[in-house]
Amino acid sequence: MMIHAVLHFCLLAKLCVSFDSARFLQSRKSPSCTTTLSSSVSSFEKTGITRELQWDPVPTPIPLRKELDLLESGVLMQRGEFCMLHGDRLQEVEDECLKLGMTLPQGLLIRRQLMVSKVVRSSWMLKDRSKLGDIRRKFQDEGWSLLELSEDIDQPPVSILRAIIAERVFRAYPDMRIGDQKRIVRSIISEKDPDKIGKFLTDRELSELQTAKEFDVVGFQISTATPVLWEEALYTYLNEQKINYVSEETLRDAEISFTPDCLILDDCYINGQLIRWMDVKSFYGSGLRENKHFTNSLKKQIGRYETEFGESGAVVFKHGFSSKLQSKFPSTLFLDAGPLVDDMKFKGEDNL
């Protein structure tokens, strides 16, 4: 019993000191834990230090009416269009954004969210055996290109080929675990396995895949460093303000169930509102009903954080947010880029 007690004490002690960096240990005052949550969360004790920050400039949310006007203008999306915009199409969106007092990145990010929402709503097409059979026949037997099919059914071209490849892999390996089948499909789409590409794609189909990737930012997304850089910008700001916090990585190491980008250990007030956690988003927070897929995801995330940590927090959107979010989530503080960009702490660019 004594050994178990000692081991338990050592584990808690390790969690208590495994904060984001030695900076916290150097600046920490006598802590007093004021929360009674899960054992993992409560091991990150509050410092009892009160801090007040002013997030300048004070965020100005975009009125929902402006988002609706941009949507109703019809410039954001066209049938079968899932690519980045260039030339006249890009100028068309920029002109409409300027007319409404919005930025081009805001318009492009709303467009991206609308595309994702559209695909989520209509993804059944690529799961329905009869519909997929018709698509496969047009692609394999009638020589339709993926871009032609994309315009025909209004689905991302890479997603179309992914569904066709998934069907082929299932037929070739019916007894294989689904997870392993999906890994094969991913290796083909990413062109990382020449043997599997040769087994499941013709030369024409490989060429179609490569072309489709150039015209698809929804069905095929290239990972960027933007989210990581954005998190680092937040940490830099908090360090400069001498705020005691725990990073997402440390929270994960402590096996916390739901992890925001940081857990604030001080009694920190931002623009007069007490916050316990912060999460950063490298996009625009849309309030459109058509983007409810995004809003529902945000609702679940905020709910989990508030349940996990017992208090409300702040969400930082790099490109601003809709007034609808403020009314929908009154307990959450919404912020824009503010000092993170003004102080040149963040220099990444979004792949819009």
UniProtKB/TrEMBL annotation:
First and last residue of the signal peptide: 1-18
Q: Would the keyword Transport be found if you checked this record's keyword annotation?
A: no
Q: Which domain of life is it from?
A: Eukaryota
GO annotation, cellular component aspect? cytoplasm; nucleus
Mind listing the UniProt keywords for this protein, alphabetically? Answer: Cytoplasm, Nucleus, Signal
Localization, per the record, is: Cytoplasm; Nucleus
**Would you tell me the protein name for this molecule?**
CDAN1-interacting nuclease 1
Q: Which organism is it from?
A: Cylindrotheca closterium
Lineage of the source organism? Answer: Eukaryota, Sar, Stramenopiles, Ochrophyta, Bacillariophyta
